[in-house]
Amino acid sequence: MSDQLTPEEQRTLLRLARQAMETAVRGERLPPLDESVLTLRLRELGASFVTLTMSGDLRGCIGALEAYQPLAQDVREHAIAAALEDFRFRPVSPGELDGIQIEVSRLTAPIPLEYKDTDDLLAKLRPHVDGVILRDGPRRATFLPQVWEKIPDRAEFLDNLCSKMGAAPGLWRHKHLNVQIYQVEEFHE
Question: How many C-beta neighbours within 10 Å does residue 62 have?
């Protein structure tokens, strides 16, 4: 990803994510974001995912695939959603806050991945580089590039992504799906 955030901008986003998550989990009201103290890049439209882990295990992950609000606000919103609204997990409790680690992924805009057949699709996927979005009609799902660490096999990666989308694991083998890719700039506490 070109146009990397500075270390200070990364620290600012992690601090904003931590403050938003802790405030929301404690049931307190989040103060408005003071954009006047943010750099231009943090005020520009940006898409992010916020991933929460506890003892190395996933505890929540929510984000946006396309930019629709300032990056700093996007990170705050998704930190709260990852803590309280990820349907796969119960909401984070105040007693868990000290054990939660935060990771922020800043996404590039998704681009279509054109492919002829399943072999071509597998050949064009770039493990550990590309995040992948699969679409089948109204259904869609994504895996961030970090998921390649846990599922390095391309076919297994797509099978799991189909399952996440609510489809049969091998759907990508039998049906030409809409595939998009993106990259991320990832940083964590």
Answer: 20
Question: Do 24 and 75 reside in the same domain of the chain?
Answer: yes
Residues 161 and 85 in one domain: no
Q: Which domain holds residue 18?
A: 7-107
CATH of the domain at 167: 3.30.1490.150
CA 91 – CA 87 distance, rounded (Å): 9
CA dihedral of 172, 178, 179, 180, whole degrees rounded to 10: -160
Q: Is residue 42 part of a domain?
A: yes
pLDDT in tens, 12-60: 999 999 999 999 999 999 999 998 889 999 999 999 999 999 999 999 9
Strand partners, 86: none
- Contact (Cβ atoms closer than 8 angstroms) between residue 97 and residue 141: no
